[in-house]
Amino acid sequence: MTAIDKAKVACCFGKSVESYEQHAHVQKEIAAHLAGLAGDYVKPLPAKVLEVGCGTGLLTGSIKRLWIGCDLWINDLVEGMCMKSAARFCIPASHCLVGDIEEIPLPGNMDCLLSASVFQWLSHPQATYARLAESLSAGGWLVFSTFGEDNCLELREVSGTGLPYLQKEETIAMLSGHFQVIHVEEEHRRLYFPDAVQVLKHIKQTGVNGLAGSQIWTRGKLQDFSARYARLFACDGMLPLTYHPRYFVCRKRQ
């Protein structure tokens, strides 16, 4: 597994601002499901909400519709994404927190923190969960999705690079010091592509190639990658790419 280079992550996601939503099919479904879980579990209705890693607003719009009139703050590592979401959903600039959620100052007395498809990028997840707990009011909620160890398994098998995804039990253990973990679920979703080049284009268009040690694709490396991917994973003439979303609903310990 490769280390997480936050500068490279920001660069890759920044380049995908305009292409992200057109190609982030699984991420849209994850955001919608996460919003549904928040609506089911978070009671009473939160007055002050922070979304971590808003991106182009896939979850932001659902939050605005779910909790009409809530005081919504948004964060993203990439300024362009944060500003795009703010403009799209009429969020004041004062409520845009640009930067690494592991480092920037956080507002206090939040009733709910939400995040979709972001926490797999945390360098220090346990310390960050503690920081997030501090920003929540007593009994506040943390509702998020991340990815499990089967995520992009095909890419990791073929290229030897990938994020250090946590086991479910590891994440629960990190959360349990500050939160009661009320609900956990997971699923596997697969996209299919006609060839390995289209897999790589999908990864680039959604920004998720922001990994230290990403390949420089010479013609020879690309041919080898394509051949290995097809040999190992081809199914009925198509190449799969696995997503392994995992969902957590947590409440701050009183």
UniProtKB/TrEMBL annotation:
Residues 50-144 form the Methyltransferase type domain. Its EC number is 2.1.1.197. It catalyses: malonyl-[ACP] + S-adenosyl-L-methionine = malonyl-[ACP] methyl ester + S-adenosyl-L-homocysteine. Pathway: Cofactor biosynthesis; biotin biosynthesis. One of its GO terms (molecular function) is carboxyl-O-methyltransferase activity. It comes from the Bacteria. InterPro entries: BioC, Methyltransf_11, SAM-dependent_MTases_sf. Pfam families: Methyltransf_11. This is Malonyl-[acyl-carrier protein] O-methyltransferase. It comes from Candidatus Odoribacter faecigallinarum.
